Amino acid sequence: MASTSLPPIIFIDANIYLKFFEARRDHLRTMLAALKEAEPFVFVTRQIVQEVRRNQHQVFARQVEQLLANIPSKLSLPSFHGDANSKARKQWNKRIATNEAKLKAIGTKYRGDAVKMGMKIRQSSDPVSLALEGIFSTAIEASTAELEQARLRRERGNPPGKRGDPLGDQLSWEQLLGKVKTGQSVWIVAEDGDYWDEFCNETALKTLLHHELVDRLGKSASVHCFKGIDVALRHFSEYGVGLKQLPTPKVQGQIAEETKATPSVADQVRGYDLTNAAVLQALGYNPATLSNPQFYHGATINPHLYHGATINPYALVGVGCPVCGKSVMSHFFEGDGLVGTLPRLVYTCSSGHKWSPP
Question: Of the CATH numbers 1.20.1300, 3.30.460, 3.30.1050, 3.40.50, which one belongs to the domain with range 9-64+132-261?
Answer without folding.
Answer: 3.40.50
